[in-house]
Amino acid sequence: MSGTASVAEVRERRVAGFGGLSLAVQERGEAGRPPVVLVHGYPDDHAVWDLVADRLAADHHVVTYDVRGAGASEIPADRAGYRIEALIADLDAVIGATSPDRPVHLVAHDWGSIQSWSAVTDPVVGRRFASFTSMSGPGLDHVAAWIRAHRIPGRGRWRDARRQAVRSWYIAAFRTSIPAKVWERGRLADGFPLLLERVDGARVDDRWPGPNLVANGVNGIELYRANMYGRTAPKVPPTTQVPVQLVVPVGDRYVTPALLDGMERVAPNLVRREVGGGHWIPRSNPDLVARLVAEHVAVVEAGRALTPDPERDVVVVTGAGSGIGRSVSLAFAERGAHVIATDLRTDTVARTAELCRLLGGTAESHALDVTDGDAFDELAARVAAEHGAPSIVVNNAGLGMAGAFLDTTDEDWDLLLDVNLRGVIRGSRTFGRLMVDGGRAGHIVNIASAAAFTPSRTLAAYATSKAAVLMLTECLRAELADHAIGVSAICPGFVDTGIATATRYVGATDAEQDERRRSADRMYKRRRVTPDAVADAVLRAVDGNRPLVPVAAEARLGLLAQRFAPHLRRAIARIDLTPPAPTRRRTEDPS
Amino acid sequence: MSQWSVVKTATPPPTPARRGHAPTPDQLDAFRAVQQLAYRAAADVAATLEPGMTERQAALALRRRLEADGVDDWFHLPFAWFGDRAAFWHFRVPLQFLPTNRRLEEGMGFILDAAPVVRGATADIGFTATCGANPAVEQIMDDLAAHRTLIVDQVRAGRTFREVYEAVDRLAAEQGYANRHHAYPAHVIGHAIEPLDPGPGIGLTPARFGRRHVRSLVRTIAVGRRERWSPLWSGEPRSGHPPVAGLWAMEPHLGLRGAGAKFEEILVITDDDAFWLDDDLPHVRRWADRGITPTGAR
Fold first, then answer.
1. CB-based contact B88:B109 (threshold 8 Å)
2. Cα–Cα distance between A209 and A191 in angstroms, integer?
């Protein structure tokens, strides 16, 4: 991502807003290009958009302005001057002055987005808009309806309401005189830029938050006082047909993604894009915001329909040459994804790619040894060059190993951990970095095992490696949540894959190995859990962002035992579950 | 197109089959004629299927056609599976194979499966085709060629039925397909076909199976249990016996997610050999047309 977009030339002018109040307006880019109007929030002024505006200026006519009371615009004389009707009239005036004939593409953040929702749903002013990209600001009527709906318990509504209430503390605080005093004391003004930089990763410079921060902070409180308290929302909120792109930064500390649920009732032609990052995403990831706005504008200008995700899923799967990896690849291919199938063996993974193409996806295959960190880096560089960041990574490659712990050697452990644990670490880190930098929402799926929470005397090494994968998954899930990247562990039980025929039995002779593998494979086959069932679980995990998905009854029972009957679990752990060296069955022919 | 490794083992002297039921040449001719009749009818009916028709309509059309052609009894009435039902996708109970009101759509693969009887000679066929283009189904049909060779080679080598089943499983896994015959009743890849005396017609059909034939099969299961073999050819321990002489309807059925394909035809096992009853069948001709060798290579 480049942080060095050229700085566009800014043309400043003043426009008379509602009641003749003078507004500071800035224009960038040629006038004939698609017009984009950027509206800032609280406690910002137009400078919050500088980075995005510079990036859009090459292909758009970009208009920013200071909302009344902020930046270089005039300050209303009384609270009534901050009413939403006045704000809408200001926006109308700015558009009238800069793009009188051509409908504009509206982009708004935070309070700017709140007032913009009122503007686009306004029957008269609403005609001025070709599209709307909304960030971190729901409509006031929507919030009222949301709160009403969330009084009824069920489906996590109270949880969502509680979470949002905690984050909305400042709205209650703004009724008192304390916040204004805090701003004026200067302590907050000093610390605020640092807070933005450290907590939200926002890019701070001398213009943003800038010299007007205190004035913006104090005056802007009137926005809340004039519009939020004691407001009666209409029973049936007004709607709009304007194509809306709802950009939802999942790490937002002030507006929870849940608060934006149901916005499609206000704007039926809406597409929601969850992205990584926090509240000040125009400052923390201007490249992403500029790209999303430009795409939305291009789609609307071309008269095309909005698509939930303009980019197809790009899915990386390790160990895709057989078993679960192959089934997962096929499942994503069936959904039309681009599958990047990798495996140690080139012939089997090439076949996987071939099958993916048969199912309607596109696919490529690469040889990849998950124990080779350099190979991972090379692959990542190739993927980045051709596809940007992958949207889904499935760390599946794994080895089986069974037998008594005391019979295991250092080499056994090295090999097992290198594949089962470090392979997952490498995959998650290499591609996780790409995904975070890319900024789009995504998912990492790690194939663990029911053995991760089911101890067994014969699976010490394997179960340990998988337990580590499970813990890694949980930690990573917490870390990447703010980047809109979900992380899931899939814990299958006995699945009929090639693993039983490739499991290494420590402390067994070669002949015993073969016998045990064969009888284990037969046991797995009789259990009849197919890799397709695991692939379905992976899809469920990605679609529902589930932290842990057990597959097969034994995995679910293992989870239950872990929670409610740990002593039972320990008792079961003492049973030798590896198939005994088989004796000839009665039905087996003596020949 | 890669070539699948078809296991050819040095043939140990085949174990003499314990059941001297090798059919006479006359019987073979009669069975071959019914199999031809059934495949011809299935191909003709398949050619008339159009988008919008249901499985029930297709199954009924095939029944009417075969009965008009002189079929006087059924081992089982025709089944028709459209789209992902032809892969038994997400089937939980065997009864889901009964024909439904699923409608045929452009681009769907489908399977017609019927077991008509003419004067005591039974055929059991599975005919896969597509309505329009379906590359996944076509590829599975191509790759089934290797299975046909594998089965007969393994039987000739004197492998136990269970080992043959497992060999098919391994080849399917190598090809990237799921074994869908496991979803069949008793998880069979094949079953014994027994010459029955001409009877009074089909009468009652529990789950579309002919009662007389099922009763006969159950009797054979009982006999087989004593003699330690099973007329139901599966991967279970009960199939861990060397080849048994007689007629066996083999039905390898493979799936790639929602795409499925199978063939079904009679394998003749004699005391010292095994061969497919007939090589002049639609799927074999299709492989020849597409230049696919019996080992599945192109």
1. no
2. 11
Helices A346-358 & A323-334 angle (0-180, nearest 10)? 30
CA distances from A356 to A88, A502, B124 (A): 52, 25, 33
Whether residues B240 and A351 touch (CB distance < 8 A) is answered with no
Residue with more model confidence, A575 or B19: A575
- The structure's pTM equals 0.76
Sequence letter at residue B259: A
* Residue B126, token pair as written in the block: 């599975």
The reply to whether A254 belongs to the active site is: no
Out of A41-45, A587-591, B9-13, B201-205, pick the least confident.
A587-591
Residue A309: per-residue pLDDT:
61
Residue-by-residue DSSP string for B127-179: EEEESS--HHHHHHHHHHHHHHHHHHHHHHTT--HHHHHHHHHHHHHHHT-EE
Q: Among B2, B169, B240, select the one facing A351 at the smallest CB separation.
A: B2
What confidence score (pLDDT) does residue A481 get? Answer: 85
- From B61's Cα to the closest Cα of chain A, the distance in A is 30
Spell out which residues of chain A touch residue B136, defining contact as CB-CB under 8 Å: 355, 358-359
Question: Do A400 and A499 touch, CB atoms closer than 8 A?
Answer: yes
The amino acid occupying position B62 is L
How many angstroms separate the CA atoms of A151 and A327, rounded? Answer: 43
Residues B168 and B7: their CA atoms lie apart, in Å, by 10
- Positive or negative, the CA dihedral A492, A497, A498, A504 is positive
DSSP A249-301: ETT-SSS-GGGGTTGGGT-SSEEEEEESS-TTHHHH-HHHHHHHHHHHHHHHH
pLDDT at residue A476 greater than cutoff 50: yes
**What is the model's pLDDT at position A258?**
82
Chain A, nearest residue to B160 by Cα: A589
Provide the pLDDT for residue A112: 93
Name the amino acid, one letter, at A591: S
Please report residues of B whose CB lies closer than 8 A to that of A587.
228, 237-238, 240-241
User: For residue B111, what is the enclosing H or E element?
Assistant: strand B109-118
What is the Cα–Cα distance from A87 to B242, expressed in whole angstroms? 88
- The secondary structure of residue A407, as a DSSP letter, is G
Instruction: Compute the nearest-CA separation of B109 from chain A (Å).
Output: 13
Interchain CB distance below 8 Å, A591 and B135: no
ipTM beyond 0.90?
Answer: no
Selected residue of B138, B232, B256 to mutate for chain A interface (largest A Cβ count, 10 A): B256
Asked if the Cβ–Cβ distance from A358 to B2 is below 8 Å, we say: no
Q: What is the mean pLDDT of residues A346-352?
A: 95
pLDDT at A1 (0 to 100): 40
Which residues does chain B have within 8 Å of residue A351's beta carbon, measured at their own beta carbons? Answer: 2, 175-176
Residues of chain B whose beta carbon is less than 8 angstroms from a beta carbon of chain A are 2, 15, 135-136, 139, 160, 169, 173-176, 178, 182, 228, 235, 237-238, 240-242, 256-259
**Average pLDDT per 10 consecutive residues for chain B, totaling 298 residues:** 44 44 84 96 96 95 95 93 93 86 94 94 95 94 96 95 94 92 90 82 79 87 89 91 93 94 95 92 95 80
CA–CA min distance B36, chain A (Å): 32
Note whether B39 and B78 are within 8 A (CB): no
Reduced to 3 states, what is the DSSP secondary structure of residue A352?
helix
Among A42, A82, A254, A462, which one carries the catalytic annotation? A462
Tell me the Ramachandran region of residue A546: left when phi exceeds 0, alpha when psi lies from -120 to 50, beta otherwise: beta
Query: How many Å lie between the alpha carbon of B88 and the closest alpha carbon of chain A?
Result: 13
Q: Are B2 and A498 in contact (CB < 8 Å)?
A: no
Distance of CA A295 to the CA centre of its chain: 19
